[in-house]
Amino acid sequence: MIVVSSLYASLNGLIYVALSINVIRKRWKFKQSLGDGGESILRKAIRVHGNFSEYVPLALVLLGFLELNQVQTIWLHIIGSSLTIGRILHAFGLSFFRGSSFPRFAGMSLTFGVLIISSLLLLKKGLSL
Q: Are 59 and 83 a contacting pair, CB within 8 Å?
């Protein structure tokens, strides 16, 4: 069973739903069923949602593989919590700040850290066979 990965998949699934609802609410507000209609607020919400959906699936797959390869539980929690915190920070930074911001930078740094560390841990496991 992959219990730890399931925990972080569920948390990130809830965040994904929240970001989706945010896009839907803005689509209703601006009466846009497709695209952004030139509305910068809607465009930003779509990008926040899109960015989340671009990074989280791979990170969760890597986390699941780490758990299946019996990486220490502490590492799984460090990676899973870093992913979740990073994605929240990034969404906050992109949503409420113009241009670059500390939350956006920190969120992407945590996300890239998760992808790099997870990949290296799996590579180490794969090469030690």
A: yes
Whether the Cβ atoms of residue 66 and residue 117 lie closer than 8 Å to each other: no
Whole-angstrom distance, CA of residue 30 vs CA of residue 50: 19
Give the model's pLDDT for residue 18: 98
SS3 at position 128: coil
What whole-number distance in Å separates Cα of residue 49 and Cα of residue 25?
Answer: 13
SS3 at position 59: helix
* CA separation for the pair 22, 16 (Å, rounded): 10
| pLDDT value of residue 66 | 98
**72: which DSSP letter?**
-
Determine how many CB atoms are found less than 10 A away from the CB of residue 101: 17
What are the pLDDT digits (tens) for 71-80? Answer: 999 999 999 9
Domains and CATH numbers, the chain: 3-127 (1.20.120.550)
Tell me, yes or no, if the pTM score tops 0.90: yes
Picking from 12-26, 28-42, 48-62, 65-79, which range would have the lowest pLDDT averaged per residue? 28-42
